[in-house]
Amino acid sequence: MRFVDFAIGLGLCLLGFSAHALEIEEQRSYAGSGPVVVRILSTADLAAFEPFITTFQAQHPEIGVDYTVSSSAEVYRAIQGGARYDVVISSAMDLQFKLANDGFAQTYSSELTDRLPSWARWRDLIFAFTSEPAVAVVSTELFAGLPLPKTRQELIAILRENPERFVGAIGTYDVRTSGLGYLFATQEARISDAYWRLSEVMGRLDPALYCCSGQMIDDVSEGRLALAYNVLGSYADQRLAEPGNGGMQIIEFDDFDNVMLRTAIIPKTVTAPQEAGLFIDTMLATGLRQNQDDWVLPPLAASNTQQLSFGPIRLGPTLLVYLDPLNRRAFLESWQDAVEQGL
Amino acid sequence: MTPNSSISRRLTFLLACVAAVLSVLSWYMVTEFARQAAERTQDNILEAAATIIAEALRSEDGEVRLELPYSAFSMLGAISEDRVFYHVATGTETLTGNAPINANLTAPTTGQTALDTITYQAEPVRVASVTRVILNNQAPVPVTVSVGQTRNGVSLIANDLSRTAGIFSIAFFVLAVGLSAIVARTSLRQLKVIAEAVGRRGPSDLRPLRHPAPEELAPLMVALNSLIDRLARSLRQSEDFITEAAHRVRTPLATVRAQAEVALRRVESADEKQRMRQIIRAVDESSRSAGQLLDHATVAYRAENVPDNRVDLAFVAKVATDALQPTADMKDIDIGLRTEETVVLGDRVLLESALRNVLDNAVKYSPPETSVSVTVFKADGFGQITVSDHGPGLGTAPYDRYTNRFQRGENVGGTVGSGLGLTIAKDVVVAHRGTIELTDNEGSGTCVSLILPLA
Q1: Closest approach of chain A CAs to the CA of B134, in angstroms?
Q2: Closest CA of chain A from B73, distance in Å
Q3: Sequence-distant contacts of A338-343: CB under 8 A, at least 24 apart
Q4: Banded pLDDT at A3 (limits 50, 70, 90)
C-alpha cells in the first residue's frame, strides 16, 4: 500500500513538474535524522535563506529540508498548478496574497502567528517574516561629482541634467518578467506620480532591464551600471558588507519607502503539515527578533521603526488590483511606453 | 416548589424565570440584529465596490476595457480580512475576474444591484452584482460586475457583539433576580403586617380586623373577619348561656338557702342542725360559683370594649370590702382596708368584680380569726391594689397556673372552689393593660397585687 501511495505521489509530482515545467534556479536537500522532509519552494537565494534552514534543523534535527529556488512568477504558477510543497516563500506579496485569497493556502495558527503584528499577516493564511525596503544603489565611481539624491524628484533632476553620464548605465527591474519588480512598480505608481516621470526619464536613457536584484547589484559593484533603481535593500546591504565592494552606495529615499514583506504560506497540497507549521514558527521567531545580527534577511522590526512613508505594503485585497489581467495589461502598456523608447 | 413553601421564594423563582426568558430573548435579538447589521454593512460595501468597478468600465478601440479601481479593493480590505472574489462578464463572456462567482447568478437589470449568498470552495460567499450597459461599436453591451467576499468578518463582528450581549444578558438576569427578591419581599410585607396584627391580639380580642389591606388580600380579610365574627358570636352565646344558667341557678338557690335557714332554726337535734348547716354551706358554695360564672361571663363580654371611665380604686376597694364583709364576719376574719385616692381609666363594674373575686378567695382560704388586708396605693405611675391573707399560700406550682381557668392551688385541702376567681381578676387586669402579681405573703399566706396604669 505504502509503495502504491508513494508511486501515486511520485506520479503526481512528476505530472505537476512536467505540466508546469518549473524553472528551478537552485535546489538543495538537507537530510534530517528522520524520514520526514519539509519541501520548500522559495524565491529567496539559498545564500540568503540558509541561516533559517540551519536554525530549523538545529531545533528539529529529525526533519529534513528540501529547498528549491525559483522566480516568483514560477512559484505562483507551480502552486496554482497543484505542485506539492509544504511551505511556499515568496517576495511577491501580491502573488502570495492571490494564492491565499483564491484558496490555495492552508490555515495555520500557533503562538507565534498570534504574536505577529496585524500588518504582518493576513488571517491565518499568510505570514510575513521579513520586511525589506526597495532602495537605489549607485556606483561611487560613476556617480562621482554628483550630489547623492535624497528624493525621487532630485534623482529625476540629476538624470535629466546628466544624460551623457547615464545613457545605458541605469538598471531596473523588467516588470514584465519579475514579480517583485512589478509589485514595486505598481505600488510606486499608486503612491506617487513621480514614478511615471522617473520611468520616462529612465526610458530616454536606454535602461538595462533585469530579472533580479542580485545581478543589478553585481553590475553596479563592477562598474557596469551607475544606478540600479528598486533593488532589494537586504541584498544590497549584504553585498556592501562583502570585502572589496566599496565601489557602491545605497540610497534610501526620504519621500516614501516601498517596503516589501517576504511572506510564507502553507499550500493546500501540503504533505507534512505539522513540520511545515514548525518551519513557519522558526521563520516567525526569527522574523520577530529585534536586531538583524548578520543575517541577510532583516527582521520585521526593521520596517516597524521607520517613521517615514506609509510602512510596508499592505497585505490585503488591494494587492489583487494590479494582478488583474486587464490592469496588468494596461500597466505594462504604460510602462513599456515609458521605459522602452528605443533610442 | 412544593405548594407550602414560601410565597416569596416562589414569586422570586417565577420572576427569575421570566427574567431568564427575557434575558435569553434579548440576547438572541441583539445577536440577530448585530448579525443583520454586520451583514448589511458588508452588503453595502460589496454594492459600493461593484458600482465603483462598473463605473470604471469603458469602451476603447472596439473593446470593453476596465482598469480595476484601487479604491474598490481598498474598501473591501478595510473592514475585514475576508477573501475577495470578483468577476466581470460582457454578456456570457468573462472579461476578467479571479473566480466564477457569477455562475449561478441571474444578471440584475441595468441600474439594479443583486445580492446573493453562494457557496464557493465550500465557503459561503456574499456576492453583489451590478449590470451596466456600455456602448461598444455603436452596439449596447451589458456588462455585469460581481464582487464577492467571504463572511468571516461578519461572523467575527456578530460573535463579538453576541458575546458582549451575552454578558449584558447575564448581568441583567442577575440584577433581575435580585430585584425580584426585593419585589417579592416588598409585596408580601402587607401580608406579614396583617399576620403580625392578628398574632399580636390578645386571646379575647375578637374585634374585626380594620387593617388597610391590598385588593388581593381583601377576600382573606373578609373571610377572616367573618370567621372572627362568627367565633365572637358563638362565644357570646355561650357566655350568655352561662349568665342565663347562673341566674337561673342562683335564684332558686337563694330560696333554698332561706328555707334551709328557717329549717335550721326549727330543728333541734345537733345532728340535724349540723346537716342543715352543711346544706347551707353547699348552697352558699353553689351560689358563689354561679356568681363567679356570672362574673366571668360579664368580664368576657365587657372586656372586649373597656370604656375609659375614671375609676377610683379606693372606692372600688370599699365596695368590694363591704360586699365581702358578711362572709368574713362569719369566719371572724378581719378585713383591714387602707386606701388612698388612686384613679385609673376603665370599667368600674369589671374592676369591682376582679377585686371581689380576689378578696373572696382570700377570705375563703384564710383560716378563721385571721386578718385580710386590702391596700390601695400609687407607685411609679401605676395604681395598685394588694390583697394579703394568712391562708395556706400558693405552694410551689408556677404562679401562672392560678390565673388559668378552673385551676386551683395545691394547698386548698377540703375547701370547695371553682378555680375561676383569679382567672376573672387576670382577664379584667389585662383588659385594662395592667398586670397581676402573685407572691407569697411574708410569713404565711398569699399576696395578690392588681397593678393598673394610672389615669
Answers
A1: 17
A2: 5
A3: A338/A196, A338/A199, A338/A200, A338/A202, A338/A203, A339/A172, A339/A199, A339/A202, A339/A203, A339/A207, A339/A209, A340/A203, A341/A203, A341/A204, A341/A206, A343/A167, A343/A204, A343/A206
A4: very low
